[in-house]
Task: structure prediction
Amino acid sequence: MTPQLELRSASLGYEGRIVVRELELRIERGSIACLLGPSGCGKTTALRGIAGFEPLLAGEILIAGRSVSRAGHTLPPEARRIGMVFQDYALFPHLRAGDNVGFGLHRLAAAERARRVSFWLEVVGLGGMARAWPHELSGGQQQRVALARALAPEPDLILLDEPFSNLDPELRDSLAREVADLLRERGATALLVTHDQHEAFAMADHIGILNAGQLQQWDTPYDTYHWPANAVVAGFIGEGVMVEAQLLPDGAVQLPFGRVEAAGRDGRHPLPAPGPVRVLLRPDDVIHDDASPHTARVLRKAFRGAQILYTLELDGGVTALSLVPSHHDHAIGARIGICIAADHVVAFPSVRHE
Amino acid sequence: MPAIADAGLGGTAPLALTGANSGERQRLFWRAVVLLIAALVVAPLIVLLTRIGDADASLIEHLLEHVLPRVFGHTLLLTTLVAGATAALGAGLAWLISRYRFPGRDVFSWALLLPLALPAYVLAFVAVGLLDFAGPLQTALRALFGPDLRLPPVRSVGGAALVLSLSFYPYVYLLCRSAFDSQGQRAMEAARSLGLSRRQAFWRVALPMSRPWLAAGLLLVVMETLADFGTVSVFNVDTFTTAIYKSWFGLFSLGTAAQLASLLLLIGFVLAMTEHRLRGRAGYWSTGRSVAAPGEPIDGARRWLATAACLGVLLLAFLLPLAQLVVWATSGWTGVDVVSLRAAGRTLLLGLAAAGLVVATALLLAYARRESPGRLTEMAARLATLGYAIPGAVLAVGVFVALTLADRVLPALTGVDWRVGGTLVAILLAYVARFLAVGFGPVEAGMARIGRSLDDAARVLGAGSRRRLLRIHLPLLTPSLFTAAALVLVDVMKEMPITLMTRPFGWDTLAVRIFELTSEGQWEAAALPSLALVATGLLPLSLLNRQAETTPIRRSTPPT
Result:
């Protein structure tokens, strides 16, 4: 099947500086994907390249099988049949909510346009708000109008540029889920760009992690967390620490404070060659157990309501994080029992060269 | 890098290609618009520069020996005096207003801008009418001290400098106000905490910090002084502008006028370049926005000194001349004067036409810069808005010479006999060249407030360049366009040298009436047209005040 969006080693940049390098993406029709990365990683540039605002230096972009960007050739955004939701929503302040939604439908007859406008406002839960001015709407409502405006012309692809970053954190999560449901219901194909992994997890079927202009990993949210492709992804997604260790020829890992079986690996994620490695320890890999013979000293603690995130000093001077139910309240400096319960070991070749 | 594969695109390729070309075509179209506008403005100047060497042979000796040295001397002396006086007045008053509290401070804060509404040439003839040998002051003094009393002549460089300083100090005042206000109290408090007295802090911190603003204000003053024609005519002081006028309409030597104009043009170029560099530097100096200080109260009797200083300047520069104009206008009232009435109508007509043209051109220029950014567009936009630095007398000669050339060449080329020299086309073209920057400022500022994402959103929704201009920018810019139009309208209505030199036969405006009446010493008759100009001049001042008070109107980003 032809993917709805395809990037073939697309490179973008400004004035000789390459910002996105040979990006490869395939997004199937009806799925929601996300480009995730820290600010300055090139994700917004990539999105603007897909929208047609930035030209390609090399490679090619296809939308619904149609070549829209190559080096020296950029189909302008107005001819791409895409929808876009902007970080600041970019509602036209001089047009009412309904006229904003109808802006992309100007080729339709007035009656048909009015019908579609009220339909899409209804879809985003703003039926009856067509006469409101953008400044009379709350942030969340403005966001919905922007979404309705992008969806109304029924584009081949919806692009969302940090769409929730201007909202309150509580509103952000619920709206992200709501938007994802709505997009799925409509069978829309969408690409979201964000630096917020919770947003990405809440919405996307696939996540591409971008760093320094290069795609680090393209995977499901589950696998980006549990099977990070490299140390960069491991550091960016979720919490955790990297511990220097020794990978033994029998597949076990020798940590400074003990030995862990590298059990539960599947064929898709082979271990590196035996030798010095760095092992990722997530806070849920270090389990507090009063009965355990191993102990660690509490360095810091961060109360998170249901849980406490402890920063622990393990034997051998290793620092690790541990997420513990919050009724296990220990003082700083106390020694508590722990055990390492990694279902699967994530190890990368050590980068030390000495 | 992978090779770009053209194969396998099938039937979609032609569609995609036309689309890409249309984007490129739009960019090229807007680039052409900018270049065309710049060419219209710059062409007269270039034509003028080609005339730098060809004065009439019979006049060149006279010119070199008698005219140029005097003209140079007067211009230099006048500019120096005016710059010095406006620096002291403007910076001093700005310091008083922004740092201290005293009776009347809040009123003076805006009232000190009122002299901007009074054209310098009006203040000039009021001053001459009052202070000249035959005027009421000297007559009264002679009655007191005997008929042999001799005062320094009023019609001198010094007199003209005084009038121009009182007219132009608001430029320096305005810029220094924004400098002192934006520095806020912090830097001054830091200086005081480091052991400087209030006076030392002014000289060692506040004044050096506001140097770029002061310089920018002074540069405006110098430009206006070089461009002034009406005031120096009233005072009979020969400067470049009057010499240009006299060469053309006195000696009937357009060549000499063109040569003098090209010299003045070179000075204008240098000033414009300096101004551009200064403006860039002023940006570095402003560090963040701090709250304007409430001002320190002044103790005892000294606060009345501050009030007196502000009131004195305001009296001399605005209130007394205005009162005298009213007295003259009412005492000399002989019923409605048809000539002046017709002049008023034409002034308004010309003003409105020029304002419409300038605003439309400014909108196209600003939008083209946004649609097709790049070094070329940037340069062209700068050239197109150069006119504010070019004296009106220079532009008048340039446009006339250029159109004469066009009238000679174009009919031969096109086979159609049409002439634009001496028509309304000439005067409107000169107005656009001179005042495009005035209209461009507000339009550009307004457009900068329209977020880029609005353009992007409209594009994604299928709107091309033209639809974005008409459906997004035009409605959002309406307030800015009206502001720009008002500013241009008032500037055109009081404009003197361009109107005088390029108007079609019989098209006398209020400014031309004032010029003619005052050159015959008919102060009373000139009072009423002057009052009409002052009344319209108050319009942009109220706009200026309102702009300072209200924050940018509609925001496109939601409150967070």
Observations:
- Confidence is low (pLDDT under 50) at residues 1-20, 283-291, 548-560 of chain B.
- The interface with chain A takes residues 1-2, 4-5, 9, 12-13, 15-17, 19-20, 22-23, 26, 451, 453-454, 456-464, 467, 471-472, 475-476, 554-560 of chain B (CB under 8 Å).
- The longest strand of chain B covers residues 100-101.
- The beta strands of chain B are 100-101, 296-297.
